[in-house]
Amino acid sequence: MSIVFDARDRLWLLRTPATSYVLRLDEDDAPRHVHWGASLTLDQARQLAEVRAALADTESDPGGEELAVEGGLRYGVPSLIVQYGDATHGVEWRFLSQRIDEGRLEIVFTDRRYPLEITLHYRVREDSDAIERHVTLRHTGQGPSIEILRLDSAAWTLPPRPGYRLSHVVGEWGKEFQLQRGELARGETTLTSRTGITGHATNPWLMIDAGEATEEHGEVWSAALAWSGSWRITAFRDRRGWAGWSGGFGHEGLTWRLAPGDVLETPAFTGLYSAGGFGATSRGWHDHVRKHVLPAPDRVRPVVYNAWEATEFDYDEALQLDLAARAARVGVETFVLDDAWFGARTHDAAGLGDWWPNPGRFPKGLGPLIGEVRRLGMDFGIWVEPEAVNPDSDLYRRHPDWVLHTPGRRRTESRNQLVLNLARTDVAEWTHAWLDALVGENEISFLKWDMNRPFSEAGWPGRDDPDRLWIDHVRNVYAIIDRLRADHPGLFIEGCAGGGGRVDLGMLARVDQMWTSDNTDAAERVAIQHGYGQIYPACTMGAWVTDSPNSVTARTHWIRYRFHVSMAGALGVGGDLRTWSEDDLAWAAAFVEQYKRARPVIHGGTQYRLGTEATQYVSTDGREVVVLMYQPSALGRTRAPVRLTGLDPAGRYRDQATGDVHHGAVLLAHGIGAGLMPFDGTSEFVHLTRVD
Ligand code: DGJ
What we know:
CATH superfamily of the largest domain: Aldolase class I
Mean pLDDT: 96
CATH architecture of the largest domain: Alpha-Beta Barrel
Structural class: alpha+beta
Number of strands: 39
CATH class of the largest domain: Alpha Beta
Oligomer: single chain
Low-confidence stretches: none
Shape: globular
Distance between the termini: 35 Å
Bound molecules: (2R,3S,4R,5S)-2-(hydroxymethyl)piperidine-3,4,5-triol
Largest sheet: 10 strands, antiparallel
C-alpha cells in the first residue's frame, strides 16, 4: 500500500496489494482519472497519463473527472451540482494543496471565483484492494449561502473496453437481492432509493465487467456506498461507448444549504477492482467488510430464536416462556422478543412509540421473562422500531409535531405508522434516552433495530432548509447506534427494515448483522442469499429456519434443507417450536450443533461459490472446509460431483460425519457429493478437516 505524488506531472499513484489507481491534474487544474486496474509503477503511470491526456485533447469533453462538475462543454452525469447566491452554477477548478498521510490522500481545490472549497479524499490499505473515497465541501466566504443540489461521494471511470455488463440487485419486500446481470445500456442507468432508507428495490452497489468475466476469471470494477438513506448511483456508457458511474447520498430535487463556514461531508463510496472474476470480487468485499467495516467482526454471531413468524402479534408471557424452553433445548444462544411487547401494541395499528412493557402481556415487566431466558442459559434480545410511531399512541398524542410532516398536506400512513423526525435534536435525544434505559435497566444483550416504512411528506415546519432532514435523520440514527454501542460494549445489534430494506456499508459499520428478508422459504432464500453475498459477508446475513409449510409461500421443505440453507449465514430459528415433532426438535438440535462447529469457517473463512447450488468455505489456516450443496428440486435424484477449490492438492481431508479421508487432488479434480440424493432432503452439508 502506498501513495505517491509526482509533483512534476501533477499525478498521484495509489497502490493497493494487487491494484493501482492513478489520477492527475489537467492544465486547468481539473482532477482527471488516469487508471484503475492492474498494478503500475510510477513510470508506467506517467506514460499512461500521457497517452490518456493526448486522447483527451482530441475531445471537447473527455469525461473522467474524479468528481464531475458542471460548466464548459461538460454534458455528462454531474457529481456536483451547485448554485451560488447570484444563481450561477458550476465549478472552475483551482488546485490548492495536497496531503498524504499513511494511506490517506486529500486534494484540496477551490472554485476560481466563488468561496467553495472542495476536498477529494482517498484511502487505501495494505490488506485490502478497496479504495475508499469521499468528498467534503466548505463555504469559505462570508456572503450568501451556497445551494448544493447534488454532492456525490465520487465519480469512477473505467478504461475503454469493447463491451460492458452491469451487475446489481433488484427486489421488493420478501424478494430482496435478486441478482441481475446484463449489458450496460448506452446512455445512463440510475439505481436509486427515494424512500429515506436504503430500500428493497435495489441496493447501493454495482459491478461492471467488460462483458466476459466469469465466476473465476476476468476484470470486474465494483463499488458500494456507505449510506442508509436515499441514494443514487448513475452508471453511464457515453457516446464513445466508454463507461463509469457517479453516486452518493440523497435523491434528485433535494437541496442542502451551505452557509458561511459550513462543511458538508459525504459518506464513503468504496471501489474494488479485481482481475479474478465475480468470485474474487465478492471475496474481496467480504474480506474488506470484515476487516474494515464491521464494528466487531470477530464477535461470535449467536444462534437466535425469534418467534415473530410463529406468533406475529398474538402472544403473552406464558407463550414466550414456553417457546424459550423449547429454544434452549435446540441449542439457541440468544432468545429475541420481537414486535408487540410494548404499549398497546397488540396489532400493527397502535402503541408504536410507547416503549414500556404491555401490562396485559407482561404484568410484572420484562424481568420474569428475561430471568427465565437467562436461567435457561440464553442471552436476551429485544425488537425496537425507534424511527416510527403509530398515530394511535401516547407518544403521538403528546408530540404530533415530532413526525415528518408538511402543514397543509395529509400525513400519509404506511403500515399505520408515521416517521419520527430524527433530524430534530430533541427527538433524537429522546430516542437515545429510552433506548439507553431499556438496554441499561434490563439484561438485554441483543437489539433488533427495525424500520418499516419509507418517508413521506418529509417536511420540517419552522425550518427554511427542511431538506436537510434526509441526511440528518440518517446521521442521527448512526449517532444513536454508535452511542449505544459505546455505552453498552457487549450489545449486539441486528439491522432490519421490513426484512432486508436497509442493508448497506453505512449500517454494517455499526450493526453486527442484518435481517436479510421476511421470506424464509428455503428455496427462495437460496436466490436471496446469493444476491446478498455478492458484497456482504455470511457472518452478517441473518437466516432463520421456520415452519413447513412456509408462512409466506405455503411451500413445504424438509427440515434438513431448511437448516442447510440457513447455515450459510448467521443461523437462527424462527418456527413455532410448539408444533415441531420430537423428531424435528432432535434434528434441529443436531443441526445447530453441527453449525456451531462449522460457524468459525463459514463466518471467518473464504467463501467460494461453486456454480449456483453449492458454496464452499475454507478457514483462514486452510485446515477446515465446509461445503453446502442444494438441489431444490426433488426431481432428478442423481447429482453430479461438486468440484472443490482453494485446497492443497497434496493435503488429505477427513469428512467429520463419515470419517472418510479424501485426497485434496481428488476433491479438486473430481469433487464430492455425486450420486443419489438422500430421500429425506435435497441438500448436503460436508465438513472436512485436514489430516496432514
Ligand atoms: C419486519 C421485520 O422484518 C420482521 O422480522 C418483524 O420484526 C416485523 N417487522 C415486526 O413488526
